[in-house]
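Cont'd.
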Amino acid sequence: DVKVTQSSRYLVKRTGEKVFLECVQDMDHENMFWYRQDPGLGLRLIYFSYDVKMKEKGDIPEGYSVSREKKERFSLILESASTNQTSMYLCASSPGQGYGNTIYFGEGSWLTVV
Amino acid sequence: SQQGEEDPQALSIQEGENATMNCSYKTSINNLQWYRQNSGRGLVHLILIRSNEREKHSGRLRVTLDTSKKSSSLLITASRAADTASYFCATVLIYNFNKFYFGSGTKLNVKP
C-alpha cells in the first residue's frame, strides 16, 4: 500500500515563526502536492512538484514555499506564519504522467497560528 | 478555477437509504474521481470514471458522468452508519494529467 506520511499531526506556532511541514511518500511517485483545506472552501492547491527540485505554483501559493531535494520528500514552508494560515494541510502524491492516475493523501497536519 | 462544486453541501439520511451526491465542473476533463474523507483524516480514493465512460460501479457505489452537462453523480446504495464522511469529486484535465482539482465536498451523515 502507498503510504504518505506527514511528520506532524498537530502544531501550534506563533505569528512570525518559520514553520516546516514535512511529507514523505514510499512509492517512488513522481508527483507530490500540498493542499490546504478550510471549511466550505474544499481543498486548495498550494504547490505541486513533478520532479526533484521542480515545483509549480498552485492556486494559493502566497505566503508559502516548498522544497523537494529528494524524490520521496516534499516540504512546505511558511516563511513567517500568520493567523490566516491556521488550517489543515494535506500532503499527497501520485505517479507520473499517465491516464488514470489517482492521488494518495497523508493524514493531514493541523496547524494553529496564535 | 476548474474546481468542482458538489451538491448538496450536506446530506442526512437513515441507514439503509440511498445517498446521491452531485458534482459539476467547468472545463473538459480526462477523468473524474471521487474521494472520501473521514472526519479529520486524509482523503481516500473511491472510484474513477473516464471521460468516455457514462457509468461505473464498485460495490455499493455507482458513478455517472455526463460530459455534455459537465456533471457527475455518486450514488451510495443501502447506506450504513460507517459511510458517514465527506465526499469529494476531483477532476483531471485533458491537457494535464498531473493535477487534481477538488470540489468543496458533500458532508454525508448516515443515522443508525
